[in-house]
Amino acid sequence: MASAFSSDVSPAKQEVSVADFEDFGVVDRALRFPLRALVAWSAVWLLLGLLLEALASYQSTHGSFLSACPYVSFGRLYPAATNALIYGWGFNAAFAVSYWVLARLAGAKPVSALSSVVAVLFWNLSVLVGIGGIIHGDSTGIEWLEIPGYVAPALWISFIALGTHLVLTLRHRAFVQIFIGQWYIIAGFFWFAWVFSISELMLVFYPVRGTVQAIVSAWYVQGLFGLWFGSIAIGALYYFIPKLTGRTIRYYTLAIIGFWSYGIFNGWIGVQRLAASPVPVWVQTIGFAASILALAPLAVISLNLLTTVFKGFSEIKGSAALKFVAIGAILYTISGLQFACSALGEKSGIAQLTFEARSQIELGFLGFFTFSVLGGIYYLLPRAAGRAWRSSGLITLHWLGSVLGLVLLYVGTLLAGTTQSVELADASINLTQIFEHISGFLTLRTAGFGVLFLAQLAFALNIARTLIVIRSSEVSIQPSTPALEVLS
Amino acid sequence: MNRIAVMLLGIFAVLALSWTGLVLSNQRSYGALQPFISKDDNKAYPEQLPGIAAQGKQVYQDLGCAYCHTQEVVPATISADVKRGWGERQSYVRDYIREDRVLLGSLRLGPDLRNIGSRKPVTGRAYDEAWHYRHLYDPTSVSPGSNMPSYAFLFETRKIVGERSPNAVAFANAKEGFEVVPSARAESLVAYLLSLKNAYNYPEEAGKVYVAPKKEGKEGADAAKKETK
Hints:
The complex is a heterodimer of chains A (488) and B (229).
Chain A lengths: L1 H5 L7 H4 L6 H38 L12 H33 L6 H24 L15 H20 L8 H26 L6 H34 L9 H15 L11 H13 L1 H17 L8 H22 L6 H4 L3 H31 L6 H33 L6 H43 L8 H6 L1
Chain B lengths: L3 H28 L4 E2 L6 E2 L5 H12 L66 H9 L1 H4 L12 E5 L18 E5 L1 H12 L7 H4 L11 H11 L1
Antiparallel strand pairs in B: 1-2, 3-4
Helix pairs in contact in B: 2-5, 3-5
């Protein structure tokens, strides 16, 4: 098995030269079906989500665009877009990277590949029904948790099924030590399972009283982006950065402090988003305080990751995976700093009601998380497919487009947000005037989503070509691939 | 540390901590917060939504109005909301205790709607039913330069047979012999919008105590301080 990989993993040969102690073959073979299914699903959702985001963003500057039909009016298209990105792209990509990292670090294969493919299918069908429900008008009205209540149990069950698979690899692990990457990922699965079920119960099924809903909702948002996506991405970075640079994590002994403080503070900082909202003042104060304290894990994790990245910077040439992973690590630090900064200042509350807050979330999710797991996918897909990426031109296109798109998106959103923050505080400027002042920035935002969409089109095309060629020409070394039927 | 059980216990404790501290503690303290019965008119505030307005809230929710409109008047110390005429006072925790779904919103691309039902006319035109129908049907007809999408799909254009419908939308440029009539969804949505008003100023919040009439918390003092500033 190893020979099938040693020559073909371009463009970065060094990615396989890092000595491992596991039996690659057995682990990889067992991972193939679920990984291909997850990567293919994630790419489809990424494209769909970005396309919908681009359309919705265009609607925010051109009110009449697609407004004649209720199903594609802004108020439904926008949540459909964010939910496709979060529950479609984000979760599938997170599952894929988690599968890889956990199985590799444990030196054990997942319990049953087939049943995890079924769970993946079940998850994706649930997301599809959920987004259909939003388009149809059944949204819960809770931001980032719009998927209707009738789909939530199905989502929960498939998440638990997948998560159980992954955590069970630990029981069969060949090594006693549990590495820091595993810590984050396993914790991420537990945290999300709890945050999701509690939030669904307290918001959708048995709504709590008054603005406690806003507190639960803010707690959920931080659970989703910090404790779930953040943990998975950090776990992936702790695995891929040493792997790709061939260097061990620097100051590794600090990593455990980073882990626990990350977990503790992430539960509390979410309420920072309620700085202007009608909730008890002590809740807002806690949000501010925790946001500042959260600089501690930010510093530790950044120290671990960035110093290792920069030490191994010479390896970055020719390694698409390392490029994405390195950007992911840098964006983790930047988005974390932005989050802490947004707690500062007398009038920070009002910024929470502008595009400024959204720019921070998008930098975290579409920047830090997305780049980190894209790097992971660049590393793992050739191994799951048993051959190299088909086109290096498409990789370059994807890389350049992703960076350019993210810059346009972030700059546009941030400038729109800061303009809004300043002008909303001035009663002499009416809302129509504010809109005129920010519509240029919002167009930049639309362009950012457009460029990101095109870049991911190159990515999806590369995945399709890499996966489908195997099927026609290399049947001899591959078992038949029912996963592919699932994808198409 | 390589013991899974210890690790999982820690992972659980970390989350349980914030859940207890933020969610559970607030759920308990909010329980003490009751509607206030005004001695002036013997009504319990905040008022319950009338049935048709409750239906309208569903329309508001499923059309995603909350993605551009917030429903919270931010304290005057950190915002210009009161100056903008979005409410005579900031929103209190108590204002929301009877809502089964709190739709605070998170982005202000459009104005805040917490008190749209009692908003004072700015340019001489009252924000009444007729204004809302025209605005929903074609926002720029009453609010030039607005980027709000049209909700014409909530209306029906039909031929006038006999007398005009009493609630037809008044348009100067309506086609001859036709009228634009709001659907049941549009009617309930407008009823909901007109029901949005936090006119009553609770003595507790306006005065000193914040959470419950019998309790005096630190947060109560803080809120009161903000209020008197």
